Protein backbone atom coordinates (compact mmCIF):
# COMPACT_ATOMS: atom_id res chain seq x y z
CA UNK A 1 0.00 0.00 0.00
CA UNK A 2 2.89 2.31 0.71
CA UNK A 3 3.99 2.19 -2.92
CA UNK A 4 0.66 3.22 -4.44
CA UNK A 5 -1.72 5.94 -3.24
CA UNK A 6 -5.08 4.61 -2.09
CA UNK A 7 -8.17 4.83 -4.31
CA UNK A 8 -10.44 5.19 -1.32
CA UNK A 9 -9.61 6.34 2.13
CA UNK A 10 -12.12 6.44 4.95
CA UNK A 11 -11.39 8.13 8.28
CA UNK A 12 -13.90 7.74 11.06
CA UNK A 13 -14.35 7.26 14.75
CA UNK A 14 -13.70 3.69 15.89
CA UNK A 15 -17.28 2.74 16.77
CA UNK A 16 -19.33 -0.36 15.99
CA UNK A 17 -21.86 1.60 13.92
CA UNK A 18 -19.06 3.00 11.75
CA UNK A 19 -17.93 -0.48 10.71
CA UNK A 20 -21.15 -0.54 8.65
CA UNK A 21 -19.80 2.46 6.70
CA UNK A 22 -16.61 0.57 5.91
CA UNK A 23 -18.69 -2.30 4.52
CA UNK A 24 -20.84 0.12 2.50
CA UNK A 25 -17.68 1.64 1.04
CA UNK A 26 -16.51 -1.87 0.05
CA UNK A 27 -19.92 -2.58 -1.53
CA UNK A 28 -19.63 0.67 -3.47
CA UNK A 29 -16.21 -0.29 -4.82
CA UNK A 30 -17.57 -3.76 -5.68
CA UNK A 31 -20.46 -2.17 -7.61
CA UNK A 32 -17.98 0.07 -9.41
CA UNK A 33 -15.72 -2.71 -10.64
CA UNK A 34 -18.34 -5.48 -10.99
CA UNK A 35 -16.97 -7.71 -8.22
CA UNK A 36 -19.06 -10.84 -7.53
CA UNK A 37 -21.02 -11.17 -4.30
CA UNK A 38 -18.78 -14.05 -3.17
CA UNK A 39 -15.57 -12.02 -3.45
CA UNK A 40 -17.19 -9.01 -1.84
CA UNK A 41 -18.43 -11.21 1.00
CA UNK A 42 -14.90 -12.49 1.71
CA UNK A 43 -13.43 -8.99 1.68
CA UNK A 44 -16.20 -7.57 3.87
CA UNK A 45 -15.89 -10.40 6.37
CA UNK A 46 -12.13 -10.05 6.75
CA UNK A 47 -12.12 -6.25 6.84
CA UNK A 48 -14.96 -6.32 9.38
CA UNK A 49 -12.77 -8.52 11.59
CA UNK A 50 -9.89 -6.07 11.39
CA UNK A 51 -12.19 -3.10 12.10
CA UNK A 52 -14.00 -4.84 14.96
CA UNK A 53 -10.65 -5.56 16.50
CA UNK A 54 -9.89 -1.82 16.48
CA UNK A 55 -13.35 -0.93 17.82
CA UNK A 56 -13.20 -3.47 20.65
CA UNK A 57 -9.58 -3.36 21.71
CA UNK A 58 -7.55 -0.45 20.33
CA UNK A 59 -8.66 2.35 22.63
CA UNK A 60 -10.18 0.59 25.63
CA UNK A 61 -12.99 2.95 26.58
CA UNK A 62 -11.64 6.12 24.98
CA UNK A 63 -12.72 7.37 21.55
CA UNK A 64 -10.16 7.07 18.76
CA UNK A 65 -9.84 7.09 14.98
CA UNK A 66 -10.22 4.19 12.55
CA UNK A 67 -8.60 4.63 9.18
CA UNK A 68 -9.28 2.35 6.20
CA UNK A 69 -7.50 2.65 2.87
CA UNK A 70 -8.28 0.64 -0.24
CA UNK A 71 -6.17 0.21 -3.32
CA UNK A 72 -7.18 -1.48 -6.57
CA UNK A 73 -4.41 -3.68 -7.96
CA UNK A 74 -4.14 -6.02 -10.92
CA UNK A 75 -6.79 -8.70 -10.14
CA UNK A 76 -6.49 -7.90 -6.46
CA UNK A 77 -7.64 -5.44 -3.83
CA UNK A 78 -5.48 -4.28 -0.93
CA UNK A 79 -7.12 -2.95 2.21
CA UNK A 80 -5.26 -1.39 5.11
CA UNK A 81 -6.88 -0.90 8.51
CA UNK A 82 -5.08 1.41 10.92
CA UNK A 83 -5.60 2.80 14.37
CA UNK A 84 -3.63 4.86 16.86
CA UNK A 85 -4.34 2.75 19.89
CA UNK A 86 -2.59 -0.06 21.73
CA UNK A 87 -0.61 -2.58 19.73
CA UNK A 88 -2.33 -5.51 18.15
CA UNK A 89 -0.10 -8.10 19.90
CA UNK A 90 -1.57 -7.14 23.22
CA UNK A 91 -5.05 -7.71 21.81
CA UNK A 92 -4.29 -11.04 20.18
CA UNK A 93 -5.32 -13.10 23.17
CA UNK A 94 -8.46 -11.14 23.89
CA UNK A 95 -11.76 -12.94 24.39
CA UNK A 96 -12.23 -14.06 20.80
CA UNK A 97 -9.12 -16.23 21.17
CA UNK A 98 -7.51 -14.83 18.04
CA UNK A 99 -10.26 -16.25 15.82
CA UNK A 100 -10.45 -12.91 14.01
CA UNK A 101 -6.93 -13.20 12.72
CA UNK A 102 -7.53 -16.82 11.64
CA UNK A 103 -10.56 -15.58 9.71
CA UNK A 104 -8.51 -12.85 8.02
CA UNK A 105 -5.72 -15.30 7.16
CA UNK A 106 -8.25 -17.68 5.61
CA UNK A 107 -9.98 -15.07 3.47
CA UNK A 108 -7.08 -12.84 2.42
CA UNK A 109 -4.35 -13.85 0.01
CA UNK A 110 -1.71 -12.18 2.16
CA UNK A 111 -1.84 -10.50 5.58
CA UNK A 112 0.69 -8.28 7.30
CA UNK A 113 0.23 -7.09 10.85
CA UNK A 114 2.56 -4.51 12.30
CA UNK A 115 2.98 -1.46 14.48
CA UNK A 116 3.94 1.47 12.27
CA UNK A 117 6.18 4.26 13.45
CA UNK A 118 4.03 6.78 15.28
CA UNK A 119 2.04 4.22 17.23
CA UNK A 120 -1.08 2.18 16.77
CA UNK A 121 -1.50 -0.89 14.65
CA UNK A 122 -1.83 -1.67 10.99
CA UNK A 123 -3.37 -4.70 9.29
CA UNK A 124 -2.67 -4.89 5.58
CA UNK A 125 -4.69 -7.46 3.65
CA UNK A 126 -4.61 -8.36 0.00
CA UNK A 127 -7.55 -10.14 -1.59
CA UNK A 128 -8.09 -11.92 -4.83
CA UNK A 129 -10.42 -9.88 -7.05
CA UNK A 130 -10.45 -11.03 -10.68
CA UNK A 131 -12.39 -7.94 -11.78
CA UNK A 132 -9.99 -5.42 -10.22
CA UNK A 133 -7.55 -3.40 -12.23
CA UNK A 134 -5.43 -0.42 -11.19
CA UNK A 135 -7.09 2.90 -12.03
CA UNK A 136 -4.99 5.63 -13.50
CA UNK A 137 -4.13 8.30 -10.97
CA UNK A 138 -2.32 11.56 -11.29
CA UNK A 139 0.18 11.05 -8.53
CA UNK A 140 1.33 14.63 -8.38
CA UNK A 141 -2.16 15.81 -7.62
CA UNK A 142 -2.52 13.24 -4.92
CA UNK A 143 0.77 13.79 -3.25
CA UNK A 144 0.64 17.59 -3.42
CA UNK A 145 -1.68 17.59 -0.47
CA UNK A 146 -1.19 15.31 2.47
CA UNK A 147 -4.29 13.29 3.11
CA UNK A 148 -5.56 14.37 6.44
CA UNK A 149 -6.80 12.03 9.08
CA UNK A 150 -10.23 12.79 10.49
CA UNK A 151 -9.78 16.05 12.36
CA UNK A 152 -12.82 15.55 14.45
CA UNK A 153 -14.28 12.23 15.46
CA UNK A 154 -17.80 13.47 14.77
CA UNK A 155 -16.92 13.62 11.09
CA UNK A 156 -16.81 10.83 8.55
CA UNK A 157 -14.22 11.63 5.92
CA UNK A 158 -13.91 9.88 2.62
CA UNK A 159 -11.35 10.56 -0.06
CA UNK A 160 -11.84 8.94 -3.46
CA UNK A 161 -9.53 8.90 -6.49
CA UNK A 162 -10.15 8.87 -9.36
CA UNK A 163 -13.46 10.72 -9.08
CA UNK A 164 -15.11 8.18 -11.41
CA UNK A 165 -14.90 5.62 -8.60
CA UNK A 166 -16.94 7.95 -6.38
CA UNK A 167 -19.98 7.31 -8.60
CA UNK A 168 -20.72 4.03 -6.83
CA UNK A 169 -19.00 4.68 -3.48
CA UNK A 170 -20.34 8.08 -2.43
CA UNK A 171 -24.10 7.36 -2.88
CA UNK A 172 -23.80 4.23 -0.73
CA UNK A 173 -21.86 5.96 2.01
CA UNK A 174 -24.12 8.98 2.25
CA UNK A 175 -27.23 6.76 2.13
CA UNK A 176 -25.97 4.90 5.20
CA UNK A 177 -25.26 8.21 6.94
CA UNK A 178 -28.69 9.56 5.97
CA UNK A 179 -30.26 6.46 7.50
CA UNK A 180 -28.35 7.26 10.68
CA UNK A 181 -29.75 10.81 10.56
CA UNK A 182 -33.26 9.24 10.59
CA UNK A 183 -34.06 10.26 7.02
CA UNK A 184 -37.07 8.61 5.39
CA UNK A 185 -36.45 6.29 2.43
CA UNK A 186 -37.77 9.14 0.27
CA UNK A 187 -35.05 11.50 1.40
CA UNK A 188 -32.41 8.76 1.31
CA UNK A 189 -33.19 8.43 -2.39
CA UNK A 190 -32.81 12.21 -2.71
CA UNK A 191 -29.44 11.94 -0.97
CA UNK A 192 -28.42 9.47 -3.68
CA UNK A 193 -29.53 11.93 -6.37
CA UNK A 194 -27.43 14.61 -4.69
CA UNK A 195 -24.39 12.34 -4.47
CA UNK A 196 -24.75 11.38 -8.16
CA UNK A 197 -25.03 15.04 -9.14
CA UNK A 198 -22.08 16.05 -7.01
CA UNK A 199 -19.84 13.37 -8.48
CA UNK A 200 -20.87 14.30 -12.02
CA UNK A 201 -20.10 18.00 -11.60
CA UNK A 202 -17.05 17.55 -9.39
CA UNK A 203 -15.09 16.13 -12.31
CA UNK A 204 -14.41 19.54 -13.79
CA UNK A 205 -14.23 21.52 -10.56
CA UNK A 206 -11.88 19.60 -8.33
CA UNK A 207 -8.19 20.19 -7.97
CA UNK A 208 -6.93 16.93 -9.43
CA UNK A 209 -8.88 13.76 -9.96
CA UNK A 210 -9.83 13.32 -6.32
CA UNK A 211 -12.93 14.01 -4.27
CA UNK A 212 -12.82 14.51 -0.49
CA UNK A 213 -16.11 14.61 1.36
CA UNK A 214 -16.55 15.18 5.10
CA UNK A 215 -19.99 14.27 6.35
CA UNK A 216 -21.59 15.50 9.57
CA UNK A 217 -24.68 13.78 10.86
CA UNK A 218 -27.31 15.51 13.02
CA UNK A 219 -30.83 14.30 13.74
CA UNK A 220 -32.70 14.77 10.44
CA UNK A 221 -29.85 16.77 8.94
CA UNK A 222 -26.79 15.89 6.93
CA UNK A 223 -23.94 18.24 6.06
CA UNK A 224 -21.53 17.45 3.23
CA UNK A 225 -18.26 19.36 2.91
CA UNK A 226 -16.73 18.88 -0.51
CA UNK A 227 -13.07 19.68 -1.29
CA UNK A 228 -10.47 20.41 -2.74
CA UNK A 229 -12.18 22.65 -5.31
CA UNK A 230 -10.19 24.87 -7.67
CA UNK A 231 -10.62 28.50 -6.46
CA UNK A 232 -13.63 30.13 -8.11
CA UNK A 233 -15.29 26.87 -9.15
CA UNK A 234 -17.24 26.07 -5.98
CA UNK A 235 -20.42 27.89 -6.99
CA UNK A 236 -20.11 26.44 -10.47
CA UNK A 237 -20.82 22.96 -9.11
CA UNK A 238 -24.23 24.21 -7.99
CA UNK A 239 -25.03 26.33 -11.06
CA UNK A 240 -23.97 23.62 -13.50
CA UNK A 241 -26.56 21.29 -12.02
CA UNK A 242 -29.25 23.38 -13.73
CA UNK A 243 -31.47 21.99 -16.43
CA UNK A 244 -33.89 24.31 -18.18
CA UNK A 245 -37.36 23.64 -16.98
CA UNK A 246 -36.14 21.88 -13.82
CA UNK A 247 -33.95 24.44 -12.09
CA UNK A 248 -30.71 23.75 -10.25
CA UNK A 249 -30.89 20.16 -9.05
CA UNK A 250 -28.46 20.73 -6.17
CA UNK A 251 -30.49 23.73 -4.95
CA UNK A 252 -33.71 21.75 -5.10
CA UNK A 253 -32.26 18.92 -3.05
CA UNK A 254 -30.46 20.92 -0.35
CA UNK A 255 -31.54 23.43 2.26
CA UNK A 256 -28.33 25.48 2.28
CA UNK A 257 -25.16 25.87 0.26
CA UNK A 258 -22.02 27.81 1.03
CA UNK A 259 -18.50 28.09 -0.31
CA UNK A 260 -15.46 28.83 1.82
CA UNK A 261 -11.80 29.20 0.99
CA UNK A 262 -9.11 27.51 3.03
CA UNK A 263 -5.52 26.48 2.24
CA UNK A 264 -5.84 27.87 -1.29
CA UNK A 265 -8.80 25.64 -2.18
CA UNK A 266 -12.52 26.07 -2.02
CA UNK A 267 -14.80 23.94 0.03
CA UNK A 268 -18.48 23.58 -0.79
CA UNK A 269 -20.83 22.82 2.09
CA UNK A 270 -24.25 21.40 1.35
CA UNK A 271 -26.92 20.80 3.94
CA UNK A 272 -29.82 18.42 3.54
CA UNK A 273 -32.66 18.00 5.97
CA UNK A 274 -35.68 15.76 6.27
CA UNK A 275 -38.56 17.85 7.55
CA UNK A 276 -41.64 15.81 8.13
CA UNK B 1 -25.53 -36.43 9.90
CA UNK B 2 -24.84 -36.51 13.60
CA UNK B 3 -27.21 -34.60 15.84
CA UNK B 4 -25.45 -31.57 17.27
CA UNK B 5 -28.12 -30.53 19.66
CA UNK B 6 -26.18 -29.10 22.55
CA UNK B 7 -29.23 -28.47 24.69
CA UNK B 8 -30.26 -32.10 25.03
CA UNK B 9 -26.83 -33.58 25.49
CA UNK B 10 -26.19 -35.37 28.74
CA UNK B 11 -22.45 -34.76 28.62
CA UNK B 12 -21.08 -32.04 30.78
CA UNK B 13 -18.79 -29.51 29.17
CA UNK B 14 -16.84 -29.27 32.37
CA UNK B 15 -15.43 -32.71 31.79
CA UNK B 16 -13.72 -31.47 28.59
CA UNK B 17 -11.40 -29.13 30.35
CA UNK B 18 -9.94 -31.93 32.44
CA UNK B 19 -9.70 -34.41 29.65
CA UNK B 20 -6.86 -34.31 27.22
CA UNK B 21 -8.03 -33.03 23.84
CA UNK B 22 -5.42 -35.12 22.09
CA UNK B 23 -6.84 -38.25 23.68
CA UNK B 24 -10.33 -37.31 22.57
CA UNK B 25 -9.15 -36.84 19.00
CA UNK B 26 -7.45 -40.24 19.10
CA UNK B 27 -10.54 -41.93 20.52
CA UNK B 28 -12.65 -40.46 17.75
CA UNK B 29 -10.29 -40.65 14.81
CA UNK B 30 -8.79 -44.09 15.54
CA UNK B 31 -11.45 -45.92 17.55
CA UNK B 32 -14.53 -44.21 16.08
CA UNK B 33 -15.70 -43.50 19.63
CA UNK B 34 -18.91 -41.48 19.16
CA UNK B 35 -18.90 -40.33 22.78
CA UNK B 36 -15.48 -38.75 22.29
CA UNK B 37 -16.71 -36.96 19.19
CA UNK B 38 -19.71 -35.65 21.02
CA UNK B 39 -17.47 -34.13 23.68
CA UNK B 40 -15.35 -32.51 20.95
CA UNK B 41 -18.45 -31.19 19.18
CA UNK B 42 -19.71 -29.66 22.41
CA UNK B 43 -16.31 -28.18 23.11
CA UNK B 44 -15.96 -26.54 19.68
CA UNK B 45 -19.57 -25.78 18.80
CA UNK B 46 -19.13 -22.21 20.10
CA UNK B 47 -16.41 -21.73 17.48
CA UNK B 48 -18.73 -22.87 14.68
CA UNK B 49 -21.52 -20.67 16.04
CA UNK B 50 -19.12 -17.75 16.34
CA UNK B 51 -18.10 -18.11 12.69
CA UNK B 52 -21.71 -18.54 11.50
CA UNK B 53 -22.61 -15.33 13.34
CA UNK B 54 -20.00 -13.45 11.31
CA UNK B 55 -22.12 -14.11 8.23
CA UNK B 56 -25.39 -13.25 9.87
CA UNK B 57 -25.62 -9.94 7.98
CA UNK B 58 -25.93 -11.90 4.74
CA UNK B 59 -29.40 -12.69 3.43
CA UNK B 60 -29.13 -16.40 4.30
CA UNK B 61 -31.10 -17.63 7.36
CA UNK B 62 -28.94 -18.01 10.48
CA UNK B 63 -30.09 -21.60 11.12
CA UNK B 64 -28.83 -22.57 7.67
CA UNK B 65 -25.51 -20.81 8.29
CA UNK B 66 -25.12 -22.63 11.60
CA UNK B 67 -25.91 -25.94 9.97
CA UNK B 68 -23.23 -25.36 7.33
CA UNK B 69 -20.70 -24.27 9.96
CA UNK B 70 -21.49 -27.46 11.90
CA UNK B 71 -20.77 -29.59 8.85
CA UNK B 72 -17.45 -27.77 8.55
CA UNK B 73 -16.73 -28.44 12.21
CA UNK B 74 -17.37 -32.18 11.79
CA UNK B 75 -15.00 -32.25 8.82
CA UNK B 76 -12.37 -30.45 10.87
CA UNK B 77 -12.79 -32.94 13.73
CA UNK B 78 -12.20 -35.78 11.28
CA UNK B 79 -9.12 -34.27 9.70
CA UNK B 80 -7.29 -32.43 12.47
CA UNK B 81 -3.95 -33.91 13.45
CA UNK B 82 -3.33 -33.04 17.12
CA UNK B 83 0.32 -34.11 16.80
CA UNK B 84 1.24 -31.34 14.39
CA UNK B 85 1.49 -28.74 17.10
CA UNK B 86 -0.97 -26.15 15.84
CA UNK B 87 -4.16 -25.28 17.68
CA UNK B 88 -7.47 -26.79 16.63
CA UNK B 89 -8.87 -23.28 15.97
CA UNK B 90 -6.12 -22.49 13.46
CA UNK B 91 -7.10 -25.65 11.56
CA UNK B 92 -10.86 -25.50 12.06
CA UNK B 93 -11.42 -21.85 11.06
CA UNK B 94 -10.28 -22.33 7.43
CA UNK B 95 -12.15 -25.66 7.20
CA UNK B 96 -15.42 -24.18 8.49
CA UNK B 97 -15.07 -21.01 6.40
CA UNK B 98 -14.34 -23.17 3.34
CA UNK B 99 -17.63 -24.94 3.91
CA UNK B 100 -19.47 -21.63 4.29
CA UNK B 101 -17.95 -20.12 1.17
CA UNK B 102 -18.97 -23.20 -0.83
CA UNK B 103 -22.48 -22.81 0.54
CA UNK B 104 -22.64 -19.14 -0.49
CA UNK B 105 -21.48 -20.02 -3.99
CA UNK B 106 -24.24 -22.64 -4.21
CA UNK B 107 -26.76 -19.98 -3.18
CA UNK B 108 -25.90 -17.88 -6.19
CA UNK B 109 -23.22 -15.71 -4.60
CA UNK B 110 -20.94 -16.17 -7.59
CA UNK B 111 -23.13 -13.62 -9.38
CA UNK B 112 -23.73 -9.99 -8.46
CA UNK B 113 -27.09 -10.41 -6.78
CA UNK B 114 -27.74 -13.66 -4.91
CA UNK B 115 -31.29 -15.01 -4.70
CA UNK B 116 -31.51 -14.21 -1.00
CA UNK B 117 -30.72 -10.55 -1.68
CA UNK B 118 -33.40 -10.36 -4.36
CA UNK B 119 -35.99 -11.82 -2.01
CA UNK B 120 -35.00 -9.42 0.73
CA UNK B 121 -35.18 -6.45 -1.64
CA UNK B 122 -38.75 -7.45 -2.51
CA UNK B 123 -39.66 -7.77 1.17
CA UNK B 124 -38.26 -4.31 1.90
CA UNK B 125 -40.23 -2.87 -1.02
CA UNK B 126 -43.44 -4.45 0.27
CA UNK B 127 -42.77 -3.24 3.81
CA UNK B 128 -42.06 0.24 2.47
CA UNK B 129 -45.47 0.28 0.77
CA UNK B 130 -47.28 -1.12 3.81
CA UNK B 131 -45.69 1.37 6.22
CA UNK B 132 -46.23 4.29 3.83
CA UNK B 133 -49.91 3.39 3.59
CA UNK B 134 -50.11 3.08 7.38
CA UNK B 135 -48.35 6.33 8.33
CA UNK B 136 -49.07 8.43 5.26
CA UNK B 137 -45.36 9.06 4.68
CA UNK B 138 -42.24 7.11 3.74
CA UNK B 139 -40.72 5.08 6.60
CA UNK B 140 -37.20 5.49 7.98
CA UNK B 141 -34.62 2.73 7.74
CA UNK B 142 -35.08 2.17 11.46
CA UNK B 143 -38.84 1.68 11.06
CA UNK B 144 -38.25 -0.82 8.25
CA UNK B 145 -35.67 -2.66 10.33
CA UNK B 146 -38.04 -2.98 13.29
CA UNK B 147 -40.95 -4.03 11.06
CA UNK B 148 -38.96 -6.68 9.18
CA UNK B 149 -36.83 -7.75 12.16
CA UNK B 150 -33.59 -7.38 10.21
CA UNK B 151 -30.80 -4.94 10.99
CA UNK B 152 -30.48 -1.47 9.50
CA UNK B 153 -27.48 -2.36 7.38
CA UNK B 154 -29.53 -5.12 5.75
CA UNK B 155 -32.28 -2.61 4.99
CA UNK B 156 -29.80 -0.16 3.44
CA UNK B 157 -28.31 -2.93 1.31
CA UNK B 158 -31.79 -4.06 0.29
CA UNK B 159 -32.68 -0.51 -0.78
CA UNK B 160 -29.58 -0.50 -3.00
CA UNK B 161 -30.22 -4.02 -4.26
CA UNK B 162 -33.85 -3.08 -4.82
CA UNK B 163 -32.92 -0.47 -7.39
CA UNK B 164 -30.71 -2.95 -9.23
CA UNK B 165 -33.39 -5.63 -8.94
CA UNK B 166 -36.09 -3.32 -10.27
CA UNK B 167 -33.87 -2.79 -13.28
CA UNK B 168 -33.75 -6.56 -13.83
CA UNK B 169 -37.47 -7.09 -13.41
CA UNK B 170 -38.73 -4.47 -15.83
CA UNK B 171 -40.82 -7.04 -17.62
CA UNK B 172 -42.60 -8.30 -14.54
CA UNK B 173 -46.33 -7.51 -14.62
CA UNK B 174 -47.13 -4.59 -12.38
CA UNK B 175 -50.37 -5.01 -10.46
CA UNK B 176 -52.21 -1.85 -9.49
CA UNK B 177 -50.69 0.36 -12.19
CA UNK B 178 -52.98 2.64 -14.20
CA UNK B 179 -53.38 -0.11 -16.71
CA UNK B 180 -53.48 -3.54 -15.08
CA UNK B 181 -51.95 -5.24 -18.08
CA UNK B 182 -48.92 -2.96 -18.39
CA UNK B 183 -45.47 -4.20 -17.42
CA UNK B 184 -42.91 -1.88 -15.84
CA UNK B 185 -41.17 -1.69 -19.18
CA UNK B 186 -44.27 -0.37 -20.90
CA UNK B 187 -45.28 1.91 -18.08
CA UNK B 188 -42.10 3.95 -18.10
CA UNK B 189 -42.41 5.19 -21.63
CA UNK B 190 -40.60 5.06 -24.90
CA UNK B 191 -37.72 2.99 -25.93
CA UNK B 192 -34.17 4.01 -24.96
CA UNK B 193 -33.03 4.06 -28.61
CA UNK B 194 -34.34 7.59 -28.78
CA UNK B 195 -31.21 8.85 -27.02
CA UNK B 196 -29.33 8.11 -30.22
CA UNK B 197 -31.26 10.88 -31.94
CA UNK B 198 -29.53 13.81 -30.23
CA UNK B 199 -28.91 16.57 -32.73
CA UNK B 200 -25.48 18.09 -33.04
CA UNK B 201 -26.71 21.46 -31.88
CA UNK B 202 -28.85 20.08 -29.08
CA UNK B 203 -29.29 22.46 -26.19
CA UNK B 204 -30.10 21.62 -22.62
CA UNK B 205 -33.77 22.22 -23.34
CA UNK B 206 -33.59 19.86 -26.24
CA UNK B 207 -31.86 17.30 -24.03
CA UNK B 208 -34.91 17.11 -21.81
CA UNK B 209 -36.98 16.27 -24.87
CA UNK B 210 -34.93 13.16 -25.40
CA UNK B 211 -35.92 11.73 -22.05
CA UNK B 212 -38.95 9.43 -22.29
CA UNK B 213 -42.20 11.30 -21.54
CA UNK B 214 -42.97 9.38 -18.35
CA UNK B 215 -39.52 10.05 -16.87
CA UNK B 216 -39.65 13.70 -17.93
CA UNK B 217 -42.94 13.98 -16.12
CA UNK B 218 -41.42 12.38 -13.01
CA UNK B 219 -38.50 14.83 -13.10
CA UNK B 220 -41.01 17.68 -13.35
CA UNK B 221 -43.02 16.34 -10.42
CA UNK B 222 -39.90 16.03 -8.26
CA UNK B 223 -38.11 19.26 -9.15
CA UNK B 224 -40.86 21.67 -10.24
CA UNK B 225 -43.89 20.55 -8.27
CA UNK B 226 -41.49 19.42 -5.53
CA UNK B 227 -43.46 16.31 -4.69
CA UNK B 228 -41.76 13.66 -2.57
CA UNK B 229 -40.68 10.46 -4.28
CA UNK B 230 -43.45 8.60 -2.46
CA UNK B 231 -46.06 11.03 -3.78
CA UNK B 232 -44.70 10.54 -7.29
CA UNK B 233 -44.80 6.76 -6.82
CA UNK B 234 -48.46 6.97 -5.84
CA UNK B 235 -49.36 9.20 -8.79
CA UNK B 236 -47.55 7.10 -11.34
CA UNK B 237 -48.54 3.76 -9.80
CA UNK B 238 -45.04 2.32 -9.33
CA UNK B 239 -42.92 1.71 -6.22
CA UNK B 240 -40.79 4.43 -4.61
CA UNK B 241 -37.69 2.27 -5.30
CA UNK B 242 -38.66 2.35 -8.95
CA UNK B 243 -39.13 6.14 -8.87
CA UNK B 244 -35.73 6.48 -7.24
CA UNK B 245 -34.07 4.34 -9.89
CA UNK B 246 -35.78 6.15 -12.78
CA UNK B 247 -34.94 9.61 -11.43
CA UNK B 248 -31.30 8.63 -10.99
CA UNK B 249 -31.19 7.18 -14.47
CA UNK B 250 -32.92 10.06 -16.21
CA UNK B 251 -30.76 12.68 -14.48
CA UNK B 252 -27.66 10.75 -15.55
CA UNK B 253 -28.99 10.69 -19.12
CA UNK B 254 -29.76 14.41 -19.03
CA UNK B 255 -26.22 15.13 -17.89
CA UNK B 256 -24.76 12.89 -20.60
CA UNK B 257 -26.91 14.54 -23.28
CA UNK B 258 -25.96 18.02 -22.09
CA UNK B 259 -22.29 17.11 -21.95
CA UNK B 260 -22.42 15.77 -25.51
CA UNK B 261 -24.20 18.88 -26.71
CA UNK B 262 -21.67 21.18 -25.03
CA UNK B 263 -18.63 19.30 -26.23
CA UNK B 264 -19.90 19.25 -29.83
CA UNK B 265 -20.94 22.87 -29.84
Task: Note the topology.
The complex is a heterodimer of chains A (276) and B (265).
Chain A: E1 8-13, H1 16-33, H2 37-58, E2 65-73, E3 76-83, H3 89-92, H4 99-107, E4 110-114, E5 122-128, H5 139-144, E6 155-160, H6 163-180, H7 185-205, E7 211-218, E8 221-229, H8 234-239, E9 242-243, E10 247-248, H9 249-253, E11 256-262, E12 265-273
Helix pairs in contact in A: 1-2, 1-6, 2-4, 6-7
Chain B: H1 14-18, H2 21-29, H3 34-53, H4 62-79, H5 88-109, H6 115-135, H7 141-148, H8 152-168, H9 184-187, H10 204-209, H11 213-223, H12 229-236, H13 240-264
Describe the protein.
The complex is a heterodimer of chains A (276) and B (265). Chain A has 276 residues and is an alpha+beta fold. Chain A is built from 9 helices and 12 strands. In chain A, a hairpin with a 2-residue loop joins β2 (65-73) and β3 (76-83). In chain A, α6 runs antiparallel to α7 (185-205). Chain A starts with 7 loop residues before the first strand and ends with a strand. The mean pLDDT of chain A is 89. Chain B is an all-alpha fold and 265 residues long. In chain B, α2 (21-29) crosses α3 (34-53), α6 (115-135) crosses α8 and α12 (229-236) packs across α13 (240-264). The radius of gyration of chain B is 28 Å and the shape is elongated.
Assembly level: heterodimer
Shape of chain A: globular
Number of strands of chain B: 0
Distinct helical segment count of chain B: 13
User: Structural class per helix/strand content of chain B?
Assistant: mainly alpha
Amino acid sequence: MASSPPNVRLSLAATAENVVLVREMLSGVADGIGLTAAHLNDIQTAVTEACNNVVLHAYEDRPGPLDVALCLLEHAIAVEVRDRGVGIESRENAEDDGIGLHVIRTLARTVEVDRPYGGGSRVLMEFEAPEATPLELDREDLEARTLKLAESLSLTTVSIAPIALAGTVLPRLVSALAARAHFSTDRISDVQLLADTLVAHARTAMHGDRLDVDVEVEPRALELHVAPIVPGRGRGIVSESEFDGLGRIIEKLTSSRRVRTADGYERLTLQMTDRR
Amino acid sequence: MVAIDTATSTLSLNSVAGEDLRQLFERWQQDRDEAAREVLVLRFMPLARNLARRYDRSSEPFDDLLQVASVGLLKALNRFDPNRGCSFASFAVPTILGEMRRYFRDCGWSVHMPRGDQERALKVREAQETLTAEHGRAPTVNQLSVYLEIDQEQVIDALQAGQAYEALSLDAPRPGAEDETMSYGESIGENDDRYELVELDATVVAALKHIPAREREMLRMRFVEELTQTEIAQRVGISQMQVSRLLRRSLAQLRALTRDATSRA
